[in-house]
DHC_N2 domain-containing protein (Ascaris lumbricoides), 119 residues
Amino acid sequence: MHDFLRVAEALFQMLEKEVILQCRSQDIQLVEKLLPECLHELEEAWGEKTKVTIDRMNYLPAESAGGVELSAKGGKIRVSSTLESRLELIANQSWLGDQGSPTRNGEPRLTYPHRITGS
């Protein structure tokens, strides 16, 4: 169930029509099993179809805790739904000031690093 939620959550964050999915090599079969239901849920909620291509050339590290990373638009948009990214999110949120502003030493900080856009 947790694996389904990780994949579905990443797809809902991405909301792109063409997506590349990376996972650990040992998780390929699980992802292939979960993907159709995740895509169905996404289409029902969003109203658009998403084509997901599993990247079989570049896997997440085998020693990682699992999860998925999605990319779109040639890597300009990325969503990470791994245990490591969730721990980073918690660490970043621990820096929130008393007012709840996302600052550290007066500098803005990302409070939700899952969706990253690049140039």
